Amino acid sequence: MELKGNKGEWSEVYIFFKLLSDGKIYAADKNMEKLRDKFLNIVRIIREEIKGKEYSYFPGESVVIKLNEKEVATIDCSKIKTYKNKIWDMIISSTETTFTDKDITNFLGSLNIQKLKSPAEKSNRFFGGTQDIILETLDYRSGINQIMGFSCKSDIDAGSTLFNASGDNTNFEFKITGSINDAIMQTFNLLVDKQGHTSVGKRMKFLHDKKLDLEFVNPVSNIARENLITCCGTEMPLILGGMLKFYFFEQNGEKTYIKECLNYLSIKDFAKYSFQNNYDAYRLRIENLLYSMFTGLRLGKKWNGKSEINGGYIVVKKDGDVVAYHSCIADEFKIFLLEKLRFETPSCSRHKCMTIYKKENDYFIKLPLQLRFSLKPNISYSMDKNNYLYVAQS
Predict the structure, then answer these.
(1) 73 in the Ramachandran plot: left (φ > 0), alpha (ψ -120 to 50) or beta?
(2) In the chain, how long is the greatest CA-to-CA distance?
(3) pTM of the predicted model as reported, rounded to 2 decimal places
(4) Cα–Cα distance between 122 and 48 in angstroms, integer?
């Protein structure tokens, strides 16, 4: 049976071939440019499509393949490079959502690869089962071998999520302030788009037209609140509440990058730092939050603050080059997360959010948290004297 997949799935196979042929992976800066003095040598790539059958692929002029430490095949590296190029040509030329190639499928079979995405039985050691490729690496600086799990991202395909909404676990409650009544609540809750789905833009504009405002209360889940405080201090729920208000209320749910929140948070000073310049205080808290999300923080399960991973992200660039962000260069990685993540609105009906409800005589709304990668051009932004934000892409 021919293997069939989308660009993201085939990109994972391309990464596999690229790493085998190069024998190393370079770290990248915040703009996805190679840091030529920071790299990891690849000792082997590990795949375990079937539990108990661990295949190891050792880079070199001849790629050695071992099954449970016993050598089963060798493949000339020139063939790996040839098929790497064929896979890349297929990815960039395909106009279909999913596609296949019989010759490539047969070659993958000769490498004992029967699936585009390896279930990676060993993956639970790293990302809770979400990483795509397992490497044993040798740090050129320390000479230390490590087994590291990486999640594969593609600059040529739609970005994947870092943090998914999960009902009330990721909902944040806001009190609606101003002159509001039941009639306004009912009208708001009926505003939908042409497909009959909740229209965030219409609903937020309606609040503005009625001269209403949002006042952050708390994460809906007590576990979420505790985890955020454990991560970054007592002010973290307030900071995240401010970020969600900026995205939904100030930006009407339009495309918003995490970094765009910083000036807003700094000017409004949601955490009440009262510093003369509090920009860096907010930046550091948000970077630490995003890194913690990457290393295991979720809002529906009690978190002890310990990192669950020692890997990172591998990114396929538009020119076919492959670079990595990993925990060995945490500062660059944090900047990458800050600049490449944006907010996203999940299904409002599924996650029971974006409707006004009443408790006693007060009115409330839940706003959801979901974050997605967007490996696109950098954004620049500025705030004028009237506190209006101007955003441009370069």
Answers:
(1) beta
(2) 74
(3) 0.78
(4) 7
